[in-house]
Amino acid sequence: MIARPTANPTPPAPGNRLRPKPKPTKCLPWASRRERSAVTRRPLGVCLLLLVALALPATAARADEPATAPAGRCRALIVTGLPGTPVHARRYADWAQRFGAVLIAGGARAEDVTVLSGDDARAGEAWVTGPASAETVLSAVGALARQAQPADQVVLVLLGHGWADDRQAGLVLAGPDLSADRLAEALAPCRAGLQVVLSFHGAGGDFLPALSAAGRVVIAPAGPGGTVEPVYPEFFLRALETARADGHGQAADSTVTLLEAYNEAAFRTAQWVTRIRQSPNGRWRLDGAEAIEVFRTLYGGGGPGSRPLDPASDASGPDAEVELRPADGQVSPEWMGRRVLAELPVLEDGGQREVFVSALRPPGEPLGYAPLTGQRPGDPGWLAGRIVLGQAQPLPAK
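Above: the chain's sequence. Below: its structure in token form.
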């Protein structure tokens, strides 16, 4: 808080210094009306002049004070699509609630976080604001765009199945699907100074060309044409929920930025996917305590969509770091049965509609991990490196 300087009383004019001081007057509650009138009428003009004189220096001091930045708000909309299977229903519900918790922990007010669910079975649950259909989502995005102020942060999270063809891409919802073009049109009037779109659905990368804009960060589990059932959101959430993302591509400072979360999640996703092998019995084998915990979170619970874990999987130790590709380029027996790494998360924060960068495939280099750093304006990650989810104001450049 800036301390306001105290106004100094105005000194008497030189011509008045030799005048005798007026005798003090008294206004007694029991005086007559005429006496009260005589007592109060004469000092009134003097009192007004004194008040004006006292106000002038203070007004000048306020004009000299630095302008205070407007206090913005974080306004967020989380959308889950039509789940299809019990596994995906549990997954999307879990992710939506955790994203809401992350936003509120970051500084967003609970009433500014809206969750629309495409799962009818979730209707009435405390964390769900309403159903998700193309109509309700576009209406909510339009309201968000109209209400947002330049000092605000707007966050849009899209979770679910997706599809894409040569002409269009969509998020699967009950009834008509939500197309990328209609979503971009609804979001276009948004005036928020910081805008974040986490396009974390099956066709998330195909939404990037339509949603990319100046002043907006768009992150997707894969680039255009990389339609996948993403697991990246799980690791992105873990990057935000823990402190281990701090320092991934930026100097460690006990604050996890959007860029650091992107880098950390890209690395962890690649490690987890590459670590999984399919055993001859058809079950999935992987080692490491957290790796197995994530597997059970994503694919456990039984029912359609679940996957069996090989009993030989070892959860007794930490997750060992693995190579993302064979060192000699040859697929040895050890690499047989491993999952193919199809999730190469991309980040766009420069308003580009055709160039998207991934920390897992540096330009001109083979598959590998090289965190984005965003060191200078115009570099990929420059804006993302100044954003903390839930905080309306950008951070100073690290």
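Residues 33-64 form the longest helix (32 residues).
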